[in-house]
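Hey team,

Filing this mostly as a record. A colleague (T.K.) asked me to run one chain through the structure pipeline before their review meeting, and I want the input and output archived in the tracker in case anyone asks later how it was produced. No errors, nothing strange. Just documentation.

Input sequence:
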Amino acid sequence: MATQHATEAVRAVQHAATLLSGIDWLDPRQARQLSPMAEAVANMFMVVYYQAETGRVSKVDFQEAMASVRQSLKGT
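Output structure:
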C-alpha cells in the first residue's frame, strides 16, 4: 500500500509541476491567493525531504503537515 501511495504522490507532484511550469506570471493578488497553499505544500515537501535524508520524521509530523495542506485546500 505504501508503494501505491508513493506512486500516486509522485504522479501528483509531476502533474502539479507541469501545470505550474505553464504559468507565465502572477500578479500580487494572485500570489496572495496562492501563498497559504504554497507555504503548506513547501512545509510538506520539507517533511518528506527530512524523512528521506534522516528517517526521523514522526507520524505526527507527517500528519500535521498533511493537515496544513488539507486546510489550505479548504480555503480555495
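Quick notes for T.K.: The chain has three helices and no strands. The mean pLDDT is 92.
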